[in-house]
Amino acid sequence: MKKRRMEFLFVIVLMLSIYVVFFSGFGQFVKLVFISVYGFIIFVSIFSLMLENRSAQHTLLWMYVLLFFPVFGYIFYLYSGQLYLKGYLFKSKRKNDREEWRKLLKSEESPDLSFLQDNQRAFAEFSSHISVTKISTNSTTKILKNGAETFSEIKQRLKKAKRYIHMEYYIFRSDRLGKEIIDILINKAREGVEVLFLFDAVGSLQLASDDIKLLERAGVKVQSFLPLKYGFFNQKFNFRNHRKIIVIDGEVGFVGGLNVGIEYLGESDKFGFWRDTHMLLEGEAVHTLHTVFLLDWEYVSRKMMLEEYPSAEYGSNQVDGAVHVVASGPDTGQDIMGDLYYSMMASATKSIWIATPYFVPSEPIRTALRVAARRGLEVRIMVPEKNDGFLTQYATRSYFPELLRCGVEIYSYKKGFLHQKILIVDGNMASIGTANMDMRSFHLNFEVNVFLIGSSSIRDLIVHYEEDIKDSVKLSPVEFYKRGIVKRTKESFARLFSGVL
């Protein structure tokens, strides 16, 4: 915190220096002093940047920003260029979470994965090693396509809750859909059902304070994740909780791409039809998903609750592949999700299918895709034709040329806005969850995905993907290369911000 205060003091000094040099009537000696102070601060910042040993291109980029954009460049560096601070900012949460996960893993037996194919088992073992969560072979999953099917199932299950409802969302709006769910939560709380409701402070800015008060008066416990008023001076506002989790009575869990708002039902004039995918979980994997929620709740409420919700006894079900719930983010201490995506792609022997609204891949991901395509694998990437932001729209397209040259098939989804986050490998491994294929999901956001290995639900994902292909247009490399200088300039400019997209 002391370091952060010093940095903001530097901002004030830099602004004062600019004022004195360009707008004041002070003499040349005073102006020279302030120029020297300004130069010293920038030199210290650049020197510190060099000591971080980032990649050469990232180091040079931030050097240029600091040198050529007075004051603004330094402020932008503090809030975007120094995001490595995540390890420090969430040190206590990461330490506590790891201790809790270790306790859980000690009390549980490792599953038998001998029924998996060699590449499936290799990925499952890597996934288990790199994360702190247990792979389940005693869980069932159901794919939910789009908002109508998803929220119909959610509302139906919420109404059946008997003991507790634990809910966590990045975006929760006070529109028609949001109020319908709020009414259900209020009614269940009045019936004596424990309701815990956690929302991200930035994503849920359109959650009305009056609705929060209604929930609290009914007995719902409400928490906000990283409120802005506590995050401005320590940079925490950069890190958002992008998770979407519902756990009901420890028996049913929901996770996936859908937030709560009418646009997710396709009722928004701005977005039109909304293509998304969610998942219903039952069985022992629900306990893992619940633990992710409880650890987030403990972090914001400062109340230890994990021991109050022990794992339930699940009957022995027929094995339907393996299910692995994986949480990632600043609280995990490493870039788990990007590594898992890369590992799954690298294990592919036949095909890699991707659907994502934001495609800003890391260098390892791009390498995996290029190598797979050159090996003759079927590599498909599906993105929306129009995105919801200038930078994400053009940064995504900036990665197309190198992939198209290698034989990667890129599809532009035209029916509406594609928001699902899907990865399917060889038709027998898949990922579904909250993490996009971009740097923000890999490095900054709190995310949660479910990895399916040999599960029958993968067939539904394949069917849905093939249906989406029919609503898409395959990009022609020749036609794409003919795009004008204006579009290429926009792409190159947007790509400069890839690290925070």
Automatic annotation (TrEMBL):
Its EC number is 2.7.8.-. Keywords: Cell membrane, Lipid biosynthesis, Lipid metabolism, Membrane, Phospholipid biosynthesis, Phospholipid metabolism, Repeat, Transferase, Transmembrane, Transmembrane helix. It catalyses: 2 a 1,2-diacyl-sn-glycero-3-phospho-(1'-sn-glycerol) = a cardiolipin + glycerol. Signal peptide: none annotated. The active site is at residues 242, 244, 249, 419, 421, 426. The chain crosses the membrane at residues 7-26, 32-51, 60-79. It is found in: Cell membrane. It is a multi-pass membrane protein. PROSITE patterns: PLD. InterPro entries: Cardiolipin_synth_Firmi, Cardiolipin_synthase, CLS_N, PLD-like_dom, PLipase_D/transphosphatidylase. It holds the Pfam family PLDc_2. Residues 237-264, 414-441 form the PLD phosphodiesterase domain. Gene3D superfamilies: Endonuclease Chain A. It comes from the Bacteria. Catalyzes the reversible phosphatidyl group transfer from one phosphatidylglycerol molecule to another to form cardiolipin (CL) (diphosphatidylglycerol) and glycerol. NCBIfam families: bac_cardiolipin. Belongs to the phospholipase D family. Cardiolipin synthase subfamily. This is Cardiolipin synthase. The gene is cls.
